Amino acid sequence: MTVDTRIAAVTRRIIERSKPTREPYLARVKDAVSKGPHRSVLSCGNLAHGFAACGVTDKANLSGDTVPNIGIITAYNDMLSAHQPFETYPQMIRDAAREAGGVAQVAGGVPAMCDGVTQGQPGMELSLISRDVIAMSAAIGLSHNMFDAALYLGVCDKIVPGLFIAALSFGHLPTIFVPAGPMTSGLPNDEKARIRQLYAEGKVGREELLEAESKSYHGPGTCTFYGTANSNQMLMEIMGLHMPGATFVNPGTPLRDALTKEATKRALAITAQGNEFTPVGEMIDERSIVNGVVGLHATGGSTNHTLHLVAMARAAGIILTWEDIADLSDAVPLLARVYPNSLADVNHFHAAGGMGYLISQLLKAGYLHEDVRTIWGQGLSAYAVEAKLGPDGTVIREAAPEVSADPKVISRAEDPFQPNGGLKMLTGNLGKAVIKISAVKAEHQVIEAPARIFHSQHDLQAAFKAGELTGDFVAVVRFQGPKVNGMPELHKLTPPLGVLQDRGQKIALVTDGRMSGASGKVPAAIHVTPEALDGGPISKIREGDMVRVDARAGTLEVLVDAAEFDARKPAEADISEYETGMGRELFGRFRALAATADQGAGILG
């Protein structure tokens, strides 16, 4: 299949740029692979500790080097609806591994926090930091050196990027990501958003709000809107790390269990002991990363991945930039409309044709690299399928449908919802930022208005409740970057800004913090870098300065005389409130070492 020339050009420059880091990375993977099954280097005492709690059969199998052992890294906990189904997976995986002549052990657990619980709370300041903690935690689990392959059980916002980074640090191991699937559809997302805005206006109380929220988030599985968690799942499939068709099958169904068992057996089949050895560090390459970015744009995915994908790629020695992401957005059309880009949720997306139909359309139009390696074998065409439950309880696959079951949710490549992915980079005298416009109406994509300055989302909320946010304005919410407080999502800004826009005011947001992966209709220049704490230009904006956010031209400017603006001293803020409480004191060094947003905002690599 011929790849679109624009996609090919971006891929080539990523390959060239990455050579100084990719080649040493591959050399390290090759060296680890050459040492063979790693249990062979363990002493008898090491090995005895490693299988002491196993049953007789597993002990016998692990005492030699010929039976493959899967290391399970799990993000299970009871509190996250998306991760609660993983409670039963280890036993299911162990049983499936024994049936296939292998062994599986839980190598370790990783923390998994729910941004939905911590939004607007002090704990949210640990959210982005948790990505790197997850990567390190998974690495500790796998460092026991007992394993021939790894299965990663994770779904949500920072969990999958952290697990991905860990997987690439153990690039010699074949790796499969095992999803749990989305919860069934509850209260429609537009109704949930309506109640939130009414609550922000004081027109309904907490009881009505909690009732609406509880009807939206009502059972096991991923939240059904298309935020970071479901963007993660899309990425794992389009990059070939899920079983084909596995992504959006609901938890607790026979097909979901069959896919998990199949993933276990496939992991055993692609170890070094078999004939299809697929070390993940060699499998994931520049083309795989580009495919992931293409999928993100084609589905109107989460802005958080302008941070995560940069960090994830670096774990494989691949240097991805915001410019690459922006150029790919210009080349890739939007083929899916899922809330907040429409009223549909991910269950409607799956029913309309889902990942199989999406991949088939992108392949036919030349937007994806087909000639990539996946855990299923060579070529992404194997993912242009629909997974179903066969008569014997195993998974069968059929070719993706030729026609979308709901063209309002997934369109054909030749008839897209819009000609680009809607994720753009902004540049100008305020630095660099990203903006997602797939859900922003055309009349709101260029905003020029006076600045209103805030140093927290709570300050803006207070001004809103006091009726002080009148007229057109650009809300500048600064001192929210990775070095200040871990760059929390500023979720509490969405309802009040949405209310003001609905009243007819021209509103935009400029911040060095993050917004939710499900943020939508209000234009938001986010991830502004350099951040305010580093003396970035955002720290020099004053109340009343005219600010222009132009998503069409891709510019972010403060309309002040250049000499005057350069002469200004950066503003200062008291950030002591972010330093202690709710565990934040444990992560002071993480914040101090954090990279800039365009470098992934992490501390690893």
From TrEMBL:
Ranges where the Dihydroxy-acid/6-phosphogluconate dehydratase C-terminal domain occurs: 408-601
Enumerate the UniProt keywords alphabetically. 4Fe-4S, Carbohydrate metabolism, Gluconate utilization, Iron, Iron-sulfur, Lyase, Metal-binding
What does it catalyze? 6-phospho-D-gluconate = 2-dehydro-3-deoxy-6-phospho-D-gluconate + H2O
Pfam families given in the database record? ILV_EDD_C (PF24877), ILVD_EDD_N (PF00920)
EC class of the enzyme, as a word: lyase
Q: In which pathway does it act?
A: Carbohydrate metabolism; Entner-Doudoroff pathway
Q: What is the lineage of its organism?
A: Bacteria, Pseudomonadati, Pseudomonadota, Alphaproteobacteria, Hyphomicrobiales
**Full protein name:** Phosphogluconate dehydratase
Can you tell me which family this protein belongs to? Answer: Belongs to the IlvD/Edd family.
Superkingdom: Bacteria
Where is [4Fe-4S] cluster annotated to bind? 156, 223
Q: How is the cofactor bound?
A: Binds 1 [4Fe-4S] cluster.
Q: Is 4Fe-4S included in the keywords of this UniProt record?
A: yes
Instruction: Give me the Gene Ontology terms describing cellular component.
Output: cytosol
- Any keyword rRNA-binding? no
Q: What does this protein do?
A: Catalyzes the dehydration of 6-phospho-D-gluconate to 2-dehydro-3-deoxy-6-phospho-D-gluconate.
